[in-house]
Write a structure and sequence with these properties.
Length: about 450
Amino acid sequence: MKKRFYLLLLSLPLLLTVGCSNEDEASLGDRQPVTFSGTVAEGTALQTKMAGSSWEAGDAIGIYMKKAGEALSSAPEQNRKYTTQDGGDSFAPESGKDPIYYPQGGNVDFIAYYPYKEGMEATNLYSVDVSDQSNLGAIDLLYSNDAAGIAKSKRPVSLTFEHQLSKVVLTIQGNGMNEEVIKSMTIQLTGMPTTADFDLEAGSIDNQGTAEDINMGTTSEAILVPHTGTDFQNRSMKFTIKNATYTHNLSDDANFLPGKQYNYTVTVNRTGIQIEKEEITDWDDSDYKPSYAIGDFYPDNANPIGVVFWVSRDKKEGKIVSLDETEAAWGPSVEIKANNRENGQVNMQTLQNYMNNNQQQWEDFPAFDWVHRRNPDGVNYTADATDIWYLPSRYELQQLHYQKETINKRLAENGGTELSTKGYLSSLESGIYNAWIVSVFSGGQSSYSKNRVHRVRAVLAF
Protein backbone atom coordinates (compact mmCIF):
# COMPACT_ATOMS: atom_id res chain seq x y z
CA MET A 1 0.00 0.00 0.00
CA LYS A 2 1.66 3.24 -1.08
CA LYS A 3 1.84 6.21 1.24
CA ARG A 4 2.15 9.63 -0.41
CA PHE A 5 3.65 12.61 1.33
CA TYR A 6 4.26 16.13 0.17
CA LEU A 7 7.13 17.76 1.98
CA LEU A 8 8.40 21.34 1.82
CA LEU A 9 12.15 21.82 1.93
CA LEU A 10 12.53 25.41 3.01
CA SER A 11 15.22 27.69 1.62
CA LEU A 12 16.27 31.29 1.90
CA PRO A 13 13.40 33.62 1.02
CA LEU A 14 15.55 35.77 -1.30
CA LEU A 15 16.45 32.76 -3.39
CA LEU A 16 12.79 31.98 -3.87
CA THR A 17 11.86 35.43 -5.11
CA VAL A 18 14.60 35.94 -7.74
CA GLY A 19 13.91 34.94 -11.34
CA CYS A 20 11.32 34.71 -14.06
CA SER A 21 7.70 35.64 -13.67
CA ASN A 22 6.79 32.16 -14.90
CA GLU A 23 6.52 30.10 -11.70
CA ASP A 24 6.84 26.83 -13.64
CA GLU A 25 10.30 27.57 -15.01
CA ALA A 26 13.59 27.93 -13.18
CA SER A 27 15.44 31.23 -13.32
CA LEU A 28 18.18 30.94 -15.96
CA GLY A 29 21.64 31.33 -14.51
CA ASP A 30 20.44 31.25 -10.91
CA ARG A 31 20.85 28.47 -8.40
CA GLN A 32 17.47 26.87 -7.94
CA PRO A 33 16.69 25.26 -4.57
CA VAL A 34 14.76 22.01 -4.70
CA THR A 35 11.34 22.04 -3.05
CA PHE A 36 9.11 19.17 -2.04
CA SER A 37 5.78 20.79 -1.28
CA GLY A 38 2.03 20.31 -0.91
CA THR A 39 -0.29 18.78 1.64
CA VAL A 40 -0.47 15.34 3.13
CA ALA A 41 -3.03 13.27 1.23
CA GLU A 42 -6.09 12.39 3.33
CA GLY A 43 -5.82 8.98 5.04
CA THR A 44 -2.26 8.31 3.88
CA ALA A 45 -0.23 9.75 6.72
CA LEU A 46 2.86 8.07 8.04
CA GLN A 47 0.66 6.84 10.79
CA THR A 48 2.90 4.24 12.39
CA LYS A 49 5.05 7.20 13.38
CA MET A 50 2.56 10.02 13.45
CA ALA A 51 -0.99 10.73 14.50
CA GLY A 52 -3.38 12.17 11.94
CA SER A 53 -1.82 13.64 8.81
CA SER A 54 1.21 15.52 10.13
CA TRP A 55 4.73 14.70 11.21
CA GLU A 56 5.98 15.11 14.75
CA ALA A 57 8.30 18.01 15.54
CA GLY A 58 11.90 16.92 15.07
CA ASP A 59 11.20 14.09 12.60
CA ALA A 60 14.04 13.86 10.09
CA ILE A 61 14.42 12.33 6.64
CA GLY A 62 17.55 11.66 4.57
CA ILE A 63 17.61 12.81 0.92
CA TYR A 64 19.95 11.96 -1.97
CA MET A 65 20.10 13.77 -5.30
CA LYS A 66 21.97 12.16 -8.21
CA LYS A 67 22.19 12.67 -11.94
CA ALA A 68 19.40 10.78 -13.66
CA GLY A 69 20.23 7.13 -14.19
CA GLU A 70 23.62 7.24 -12.48
CA ALA A 71 24.79 5.28 -9.45
CA LEU A 72 23.85 6.48 -5.99
CA SER A 73 27.50 6.51 -4.98
CA SER A 74 28.11 9.32 -7.50
CA ALA A 75 25.34 11.52 -6.05
CA PRO A 76 26.54 15.10 -5.45
CA GLU A 77 24.06 15.41 -2.57
CA GLN A 78 24.16 12.48 -0.17
CA ASN A 79 22.18 11.85 3.01
CA ARG A 80 21.09 15.45 3.43
CA LYS A 81 19.16 15.83 6.65
CA TYR A 82 15.85 17.70 6.58
CA THR A 83 13.86 18.16 9.76
CA THR A 84 10.36 19.37 10.54
CA GLN A 85 10.38 22.17 13.06
CA ASP A 86 6.77 22.32 14.15
CA GLY A 87 5.28 18.95 13.31
CA GLY A 88 3.70 20.30 10.10
CA ASP A 89 4.39 19.29 6.50
CA SER A 90 7.37 21.63 6.02
CA PHE A 91 10.95 20.44 6.35
CA ALA A 92 14.05 22.61 6.58
CA PRO A 93 17.71 21.74 6.03
CA GLU A 94 19.77 20.88 9.06
CA SER A 95 20.65 24.00 11.04
CA GLY A 96 23.52 25.89 9.42
CA LYS A 97 23.32 23.92 6.16
CA ASP A 98 22.34 25.15 2.71
CA PRO A 99 19.35 23.63 0.90
CA ILE A 100 19.79 21.20 -1.97
CA TYR A 101 20.16 23.00 -5.34
CA TYR A 102 19.45 21.68 -8.80
CA PRO A 103 22.49 21.36 -11.09
CA GLN A 104 22.75 23.94 -13.88
CA GLY A 105 21.99 21.30 -16.48
CA GLY A 106 20.60 17.80 -16.79
CA ASN A 107 17.86 15.89 -15.01
CA VAL A 108 18.17 14.34 -11.56
CA ASP A 109 16.78 11.50 -9.46
CA PHE A 110 15.86 11.73 -5.79
CA ILE A 111 15.99 8.97 -3.19
CA ALA A 112 14.75 9.53 0.36
CA TYR A 113 14.25 7.49 3.49
CA TYR A 114 12.98 7.75 7.07
CA PRO A 115 14.09 7.74 9.88
CA TYR A 116 17.32 9.67 9.30
CA LYS A 117 20.61 8.06 10.26
CA GLU A 118 24.07 9.63 10.56
CA GLY A 119 27.07 8.31 8.60
CA MET A 120 25.21 7.16 5.48
CA GLU A 121 27.35 9.22 3.09
CA ALA A 122 30.00 6.49 2.68
CA THR A 123 27.61 3.60 2.09
CA ASN A 124 24.35 2.74 0.37
CA LEU A 125 23.42 0.29 3.11
CA TYR A 126 20.97 1.33 5.81
CA SER A 127 21.37 -0.80 8.95
CA VAL A 128 18.02 -2.12 10.17
CA ASP A 129 17.58 -3.15 13.81
CA VAL A 130 14.16 -4.09 15.19
CA SER A 131 15.32 -5.62 18.47
CA ASP A 132 13.87 -2.71 20.47
CA GLN A 133 10.09 -2.60 19.91
CA SER A 134 9.36 0.12 22.48
CA ASN A 135 8.91 2.81 19.80
CA LEU A 136 7.65 1.38 16.52
CA GLY A 137 7.86 4.71 14.74
CA ALA A 138 11.61 4.83 15.35
CA ILE A 139 12.18 1.54 13.48
CA ASP A 140 9.56 1.85 10.73
CA LEU A 141 11.80 2.14 7.65
CA LEU A 142 10.20 4.11 4.79
CA TYR A 143 11.71 4.58 1.38
CA SER A 144 11.07 6.68 -1.74
CA ASN A 145 12.72 6.25 -5.15
CA ASP A 146 9.99 7.24 -7.60
CA ALA A 147 11.09 10.86 -8.17
CA ALA A 148 13.21 10.15 -11.26
CA GLY A 149 14.23 12.22 -14.27
CA ILE A 150 13.31 15.52 -12.64
CA ALA A 151 14.24 18.69 -14.54
CA LYS A 152 15.27 21.96 -12.94
CA SER A 153 12.04 23.71 -11.97
CA LYS A 154 10.26 25.64 -9.31
CA ARG A 155 7.58 22.99 -9.29
CA PRO A 156 7.65 20.91 -6.13
CA VAL A 157 8.87 17.33 -6.33
CA SER A 158 6.51 14.79 -4.76
CA LEU A 159 7.88 11.76 -2.97
CA THR A 160 6.03 8.49 -2.47
CA PHE A 161 7.18 6.60 0.63
CA GLU A 162 6.57 2.89 1.14
CA HIS A 163 6.99 0.64 4.18
CA GLN A 164 10.00 -1.65 3.72
CA LEU A 165 9.57 -3.91 6.76
CA SER A 166 6.78 -6.27 7.86
CA LYS A 167 4.12 -5.64 10.48
CA VAL A 168 2.41 -8.09 12.84
CA VAL A 169 -0.91 -7.16 14.47
CA LEU A 170 -2.45 -9.37 17.15
CA THR A 171 -6.12 -8.95 18.02
CA ILE A 172 -6.35 -10.37 21.54
CA GLN A 173 -9.63 -11.40 23.13
CA GLY A 174 -10.51 -13.25 26.30
CA ASN A 175 -12.83 -16.19 26.86
CA GLY A 176 -13.78 -16.27 30.54
CA MET A 177 -10.65 -14.35 31.49
CA ASN A 178 -10.33 -11.16 33.54
CA GLU A 179 -9.49 -8.16 31.37
CA GLU A 180 -6.68 -7.00 33.66
CA VAL A 181 -5.08 -10.45 33.53
CA ILE A 182 -5.17 -10.41 29.73
CA LYS A 183 -3.66 -6.91 29.71
CA SER A 184 -0.73 -8.19 31.80
CA MET A 185 0.09 -10.96 29.30
CA THR A 186 3.54 -10.61 27.72
CA ILE A 187 4.38 -11.72 24.19
CA GLN A 188 7.64 -12.91 22.67
CA LEU A 189 8.46 -13.77 19.06
CA THR A 190 11.25 -16.33 18.81
CA GLY A 191 13.63 -17.34 16.03
CA MET A 192 13.28 -14.08 14.08
CA PRO A 193 16.02 -11.99 12.45
CA THR A 194 16.33 -8.61 14.15
CA THR A 195 18.98 -7.01 11.92
CA ALA A 196 19.50 -6.57 8.19
CA ASP A 197 20.85 -4.19 5.57
CA PHE A 198 18.59 -2.14 3.32
CA ASP A 199 20.19 -1.19 0.00
CA LEU A 200 19.10 2.37 -0.78
CA GLU A 201 20.03 1.99 -4.45
CA ALA A 202 18.35 -1.36 -5.08
CA GLY A 203 15.51 -0.74 -2.62
CA SER A 204 15.81 -4.19 -1.10
CA ILE A 205 16.49 -6.00 2.20
CA ASP A 206 19.52 -8.28 2.46
CA ASN A 207 22.00 -9.75 4.93
CA GLN A 208 19.45 -10.69 7.58
CA GLY A 209 21.13 -11.43 10.90
CA THR A 210 20.93 -14.53 13.04
CA ALA A 211 17.73 -15.75 14.66
CA GLU A 212 16.93 -13.89 17.87
CA ASP A 213 13.98 -13.36 20.19
CA ILE A 214 11.85 -10.22 20.01
CA ASN A 215 10.15 -9.09 23.21
CA MET A 216 6.87 -7.32 22.47
CA GLY A 217 6.05 -6.84 26.14
CA THR A 218 2.34 -6.25 26.64
CA THR A 219 1.82 -4.60 23.25
CA SER A 220 -0.03 -6.26 20.37
CA GLU A 221 1.90 -4.92 17.38
CA ALA A 222 5.43 -5.52 16.15
CA ILE A 223 7.64 -4.59 13.20
CA LEU A 224 9.76 -7.40 11.73
CA VAL A 225 12.66 -7.76 9.34
CA PRO A 226 11.22 -9.38 6.19
CA HIS A 227 12.27 -13.03 5.86
CA THR A 228 11.13 -16.46 4.71
CA GLY A 229 10.32 -19.52 6.76
CA THR A 230 12.84 -21.49 4.72
CA ASP A 231 15.68 -19.25 5.92
CA PHE A 232 14.39 -18.98 9.49
CA GLN A 233 12.80 -22.14 10.82
CA ASN A 234 11.65 -23.02 14.35
CA ARG A 235 9.89 -19.67 14.87
CA SER A 236 7.14 -19.23 17.41
CA MET A 237 4.93 -16.86 19.36
CA LYS A 238 5.04 -17.22 23.14
CA PHE A 239 2.32 -15.84 25.42
CA THR A 240 3.00 -15.64 29.18
CA ILE A 241 0.19 -15.09 31.69
CA LYS A 242 1.36 -15.02 35.29
CA ASN A 243 3.49 -18.20 35.56
CA ALA A 244 2.08 -20.02 32.52
CA THR A 245 3.60 -19.80 29.02
CA TYR A 246 1.75 -20.95 25.89
CA THR A 247 3.57 -21.44 22.58
CA HIS A 248 2.24 -21.18 19.03
CA ASN A 249 4.68 -22.54 16.44
CA LEU A 250 4.83 -20.79 13.08
CA SER A 251 4.82 -22.89 9.94
CA ASP A 252 7.93 -22.88 7.76
CA ASP A 253 5.59 -21.80 4.95
CA ALA A 254 4.86 -18.54 6.76
CA ASN A 255 6.85 -15.75 5.12
CA PHE A 256 7.02 -12.11 6.19
CA LEU A 257 7.30 -9.84 3.16
CA PRO A 258 8.12 -6.11 2.84
CA GLY A 259 5.16 -3.75 3.15
CA LYS A 260 2.79 -6.48 4.30
CA GLN A 261 0.71 -6.67 7.48
CA TYR A 262 0.06 -10.02 9.14
CA ASN A 263 -3.08 -10.13 11.28
CA TYR A 264 -3.70 -12.83 13.89
CA THR A 265 -6.68 -13.25 16.21
CA VAL A 266 -5.59 -14.63 19.59
CA THR A 267 -8.19 -16.02 22.00
CA VAL A 268 -7.05 -16.51 25.59
CA ASN A 269 -8.86 -18.91 27.92
CA ARG A 270 -8.06 -20.59 31.21
CA THR A 271 -6.41 -23.61 29.61
CA GLY A 272 -4.42 -22.02 26.82
CA ILE A 273 -4.61 -19.93 23.65
CA GLN A 274 -6.11 -20.33 20.21
CA ILE A 275 -4.78 -18.49 17.15
CA GLU A 276 -6.77 -18.15 13.97
CA LYS A 277 -4.99 -18.43 10.64
CA GLU A 278 -3.19 -15.27 9.65
CA GLU A 279 -4.73 -12.73 7.31
CA ILE A 280 -2.20 -11.03 5.04
CA THR A 281 -2.93 -7.51 3.81
CA ASP A 282 -1.04 -4.49 2.58
CA TRP A 283 0.32 -2.48 5.47
CA ASP A 284 -2.83 -0.55 6.32
CA ASP A 285 -2.73 2.70 8.28
CA SER A 286 -6.21 3.88 7.30
CA ASP A 287 -7.77 2.98 10.66
CA TYR A 288 -4.78 4.12 12.66
CA LYS A 289 -5.16 5.15 16.27
CA PRO A 290 -2.19 6.44 18.28
CA SER A 291 -0.98 4.39 21.22
CA TYR A 292 -0.93 5.80 24.74
CA ALA A 293 0.68 4.86 28.03
CA ILE A 294 -0.31 5.72 31.56
CA GLY A 295 0.98 9.20 32.32
CA ASP A 296 0.81 10.44 28.72
CA PHE A 297 -0.84 13.75 27.97
CA TYR A 298 -3.96 13.45 25.79
CA PRO A 299 -4.29 14.05 22.91
CA ASP A 300 -0.63 15.13 22.76
CA ASN A 301 2.05 17.08 24.60
CA ALA A 302 1.35 20.28 22.69
CA ASN A 303 -2.39 20.51 23.43
CA PRO A 304 -3.14 18.44 26.54
CA ILE A 305 -6.62 18.28 28.02
CA GLY A 306 -5.90 15.49 30.50
CA VAL A 307 -3.54 12.76 31.69
CA VAL A 308 -4.00 9.08 30.82
CA PHE A 309 -4.63 6.90 33.90
CA TRP A 310 -5.92 3.71 32.24
CA VAL A 311 -5.30 2.05 28.85
CA SER A 312 -6.62 -1.01 27.05
CA ARG A 313 -4.31 -3.86 26.18
CA ASP A 314 -3.57 -2.53 22.69
CA LYS A 315 -3.06 0.95 24.19
CA LYS A 316 -5.43 2.46 21.62
CA GLU A 317 -8.26 3.12 24.08
CA GLY A 318 -8.12 4.55 27.55
CA LYS A 319 -9.30 7.11 30.08
CA ILE A 320 -7.94 10.47 31.11
CA VAL A 321 -8.42 12.67 34.14
CA SER A 322 -8.88 16.42 33.77
CA LEU A 323 -6.04 18.85 34.46
CA ASP A 324 -8.22 20.88 36.80
CA GLU A 325 -10.83 20.28 39.47
CA THR A 326 -13.50 22.05 41.51
CA GLU A 327 -15.53 21.64 44.69
CA ALA A 328 -19.26 20.97 44.49
CA ALA A 329 -22.13 19.00 45.97
CA TRP A 330 -23.56 15.89 44.31
CA GLY A 331 -27.13 17.25 44.30
CA PRO A 332 -30.47 17.15 46.12
CA SER A 333 -31.71 14.28 48.27
CA VAL A 334 -33.45 12.31 45.53
CA GLU A 335 -32.77 8.82 44.27
CA ILE A 336 -32.12 8.67 40.52
CA LYS A 337 -30.82 5.06 40.38
CA ALA A 338 -27.26 6.08 39.51
CA ASN A 339 -25.90 2.74 40.67
CA ASN A 340 -23.24 1.74 38.13
CA ARG A 341 -20.02 1.12 40.07
CA GLU A 342 -17.72 0.82 37.06
CA ASN A 343 -18.80 3.30 34.38
CA GLY A 344 -19.57 6.88 35.25
CA GLN A 345 -21.00 7.49 31.78
CA VAL A 346 -23.90 5.19 32.60
CA ASN A 347 -24.64 7.26 35.71
CA MET A 348 -24.51 10.46 33.65
CA GLN A 349 -26.96 8.87 31.22
CA THR A 350 -29.22 7.85 34.11
CA LEU A 351 -29.20 11.40 35.47
CA GLN A 352 -29.92 12.87 32.03
CA ASN A 353 -32.94 10.60 31.65
CA TYR A 354 -34.11 11.44 35.17
CA MET A 355 -33.95 15.19 34.51
CA ASN A 356 -35.85 14.83 31.23
CA ASN A 357 -38.66 12.98 33.04
CA ASN A 358 -38.76 15.19 36.15
CA GLN A 359 -38.28 18.72 34.77
CA GLN A 360 -34.96 19.31 36.50
CA GLN A 361 -31.81 20.98 35.21
CA TRP A 362 -28.09 20.21 35.33
CA GLU A 363 -27.70 23.16 37.69
CA ASP A 364 -29.68 21.18 40.28
CA PHE A 365 -26.77 18.69 40.40
CA PRO A 366 -23.67 20.94 40.79
CA ALA A 367 -20.92 18.31 40.47
CA PHE A 368 -22.47 16.80 37.35
CA ASP A 369 -23.13 20.28 35.96
CA TRP A 370 -19.46 21.28 36.25
CA VAL A 371 -18.49 18.23 34.22
CA HIS A 372 -21.38 18.56 31.77
CA ARG A 373 -20.38 22.12 30.85
CA ARG A 374 -17.11 20.82 29.42
CA ASN A 375 -18.99 19.00 26.66
CA PRO A 376 -20.63 20.37 23.49
CA ASP A 377 -24.22 21.54 23.71
CA GLY A 378 -26.78 18.81 23.14
CA VAL A 379 -24.50 15.96 24.20
CA ASN A 380 -26.20 12.64 24.92
CA TYR A 381 -24.51 10.30 27.38
CA THR A 382 -24.25 6.59 26.57
CA ALA A 383 -22.36 3.69 28.08
CA ASP A 384 -19.76 3.46 25.32
CA ALA A 385 -19.41 7.09 24.17
CA THR A 386 -15.90 8.44 23.59
CA ASP A 387 -14.40 11.90 23.94
CA ILE A 388 -17.14 13.00 26.33
CA TRP A 389 -16.41 14.20 29.84
CA TYR A 390 -18.28 12.62 32.75
CA LEU A 391 -18.25 12.30 36.54
CA PRO A 392 -16.26 9.13 37.33
CA SER A 393 -17.70 6.07 39.00
CA ARG A 394 -16.35 4.69 42.26
CA TYR A 395 -14.25 2.07 40.44
CA GLU A 396 -12.75 4.67 38.07
CA LEU A 397 -11.62 6.74 41.05
CA GLN A 398 -10.01 3.59 42.45
CA GLN A 399 -8.15 3.15 39.14
CA LEU A 400 -6.95 6.73 39.53
CA HIS A 401 -5.73 5.85 43.04
CA TYR A 402 -3.36 3.20 41.64
CA GLN A 403 -1.69 5.73 39.34
CA LYS A 404 -1.70 8.78 41.63
CA GLU A 405 2.09 9.29 41.77
CA THR A 406 2.47 9.18 37.99
CA ILE A 407 -0.55 11.42 37.43
CA ASN A 408 0.57 14.04 39.96
CA LYS A 409 4.06 14.17 38.46
CA ARG A 410 2.61 14.88 35.03
CA LEU A 411 0.09 17.40 36.36
CA ALA A 412 2.93 19.27 38.06
CA GLU A 413 4.91 19.36 34.80
CA ASN A 414 1.95 20.88 32.97
CA GLY A 415 0.92 23.36 35.66
CA GLY A 416 -2.29 21.44 36.36
CA THR A 417 -3.92 20.95 39.75
CA GLU A 418 -2.42 17.95 41.51
CA LEU A 419 -4.69 15.32 43.03
CA SER A 420 -5.64 16.13 46.60
CA THR A 421 -5.36 13.97 49.70
CA LYS A 422 -9.03 14.74 50.32
CA GLY A 423 -11.87 12.60 48.98
CA TYR A 424 -13.32 12.92 45.49
CA LEU A 425 -16.98 12.71 44.64
CA SER A 426 -18.11 9.80 42.47
CA SER A 427 -21.23 9.58 40.33
CA LEU A 428 -22.41 6.55 42.32
CA GLU A 429 -25.19 7.27 44.77
CA SER A 430 -25.95 5.41 47.97
CA GLY A 431 -29.71 5.63 48.37
CA ILE A 432 -31.72 8.82 48.61
CA TYR A 433 -29.43 10.86 50.82
CA ASN A 434 -25.82 9.81 50.20
CA ALA A 435 -23.22 9.45 47.44
CA TRP A 436 -19.89 7.61 47.42
CA ILE A 437 -16.59 9.40 48.03
CA VAL A 438 -13.16 7.90 47.21
CA SER A 439 -9.76 9.00 48.46
CA VAL A 440 -7.39 8.68 45.50
CA PHE A 441 -4.47 8.67 47.95
CA SER A 442 -5.54 5.96 50.37
CA GLY A 443 -8.09 4.20 48.19
CA GLY A 444 -10.60 4.40 51.01
CA GLN A 445 -14.33 4.72 50.29
CA SER A 446 -17.23 6.11 52.26
CA SER A 447 -20.66 7.62 51.66
CA TYR A 448 -21.60 11.18 52.57
CA SER A 449 -24.61 13.42 52.21
CA LYS A 450 -25.34 14.46 48.64
CA ASN A 451 -25.63 18.04 49.85
CA ARG A 452 -22.08 18.10 51.19
CA VAL A 453 -19.37 19.78 49.06
CA HIS A 454 -16.44 17.61 47.94
CA ARG A 455 -13.67 17.77 45.40
CA VAL A 456 -14.70 16.94 41.82
CA ARG A 457 -12.62 15.72 38.89
CA ALA A 458 -13.76 15.00 35.34
CA VAL A 459 -12.92 11.84 33.37
CA LEU A 460 -13.02 11.18 29.61
CA ALA A 461 -12.86 7.90 27.70
CA PHE A 462 -11.12 7.80 24.31
